């Protein structure tokens, strides 16, 4: 179990229990482990995450197995809050296997916790999941970045009247108006202090292809194009890191 120490005295420490259970161990019960963890944390916030390999029809498996129903019953008995949304599977299937919720998240003694599936896999079959536990803000709120899509702007912008035939102010305002229509709003944070327009464009293209592939998993060309975009984005990100 990992303990995240607070940055301010008035905040509580956050404890994280990360679990992996092999599907070979079919008779495993989490009752002892969960009960011991709850006893150790007391009233402190606790997050339980992991790959439980607990098959249940609630999480898009074909049938229930022994571990799945037992885990849901145990969580209910111990008063754990379940956050994984089965509408957004955490593990991607293939042309023969369906998408499932293999990775589960429970919390205890936490009032505000938000779960989100980024649907990003970084090349594996498990999605990256975000669980945000709300605490007292330690920094000033970040503003939104509005990077423009320059390629789309150059393609769609038409100068109706040359600047030498109109007032310079009117021409510049028209230019800015068209530019604002091509901007994408991105919320900045501690994890995302800045946005590079080209990298954002590559990642959005990969995300769109990935959503298409989830509906058409038999198309191998889509997987190849996704892999190419990931490689291009990784190379460009490395260039940005070196330049900074």
From TrEMBL:
A Pfam family per the record: Exo_endo_phos_2
Domain Endonuclease/exonuclease/phosphatase: 15-128
Top-rank taxon: Eukaryota
SUPFAM superfamilies found in the cross-reference section: DNase I-like (SSF56219)
Residue ranges of the TM segments: none
UniProt GO MF annotations: catalytic activity
Protein name: Endonuclease/exonuclease/phosphatase domain-containing protein
Organism: Rhipicephalus microplus
Taxon lineage: Eukaryota, Metazoa, Ecdysozoa, Arthropoda, Chelicerata
């Amino acid at each position: 179990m990992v303990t995240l120490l607070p940055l301010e005295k008035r905040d509580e420490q956050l404890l994280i229990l990360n679990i992996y259970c092999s599907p070979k161990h079919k008779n495993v019960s989490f009752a002892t482990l969960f009960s011991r963890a709850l006893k150790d944390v007391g009233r402190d916030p606790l997050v339980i995450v992991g790959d439980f390999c607990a098959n249940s029809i609630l999480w898009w498996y074909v049938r229930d197995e022994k571990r799945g129903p037992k885990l849901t019953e145990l969580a209910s008995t111990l008063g754990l809050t379940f956050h994984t949304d089965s509408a957004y599977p955490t593990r991607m299937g293939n042309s023969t296997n369906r998408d499932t919720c293999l990775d589960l998240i429970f919390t205890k003694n936490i009032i505000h916790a938000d779960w989100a599936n980024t649907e990003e896999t970084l090349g594996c079959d498990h999605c990256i999941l975000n669980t945000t536990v709300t605490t007292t803000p330690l920094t000033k709120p970040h503003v939104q970045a509005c990077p423009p899509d320059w390629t789309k702007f150059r393609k769609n912008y038409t100068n109706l009247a040359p600047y030498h035939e109109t007032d310079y102010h009117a021409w510049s305002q028209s230019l800015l108006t068209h530019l604002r229509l091509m901007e994408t709003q991105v919320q900045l944070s501690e994890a995302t202090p800045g946005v590079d327009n080209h990298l954002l464009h590559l990642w959005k293209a990969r995300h769109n292809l990935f959503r298409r592939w989830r509906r058409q998993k038999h198309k191998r060309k889509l997987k190849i194009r996704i892999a190419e975009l990931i490689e291009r984005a990784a190379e460009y990100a490395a260039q940005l890191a070196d330049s900074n």
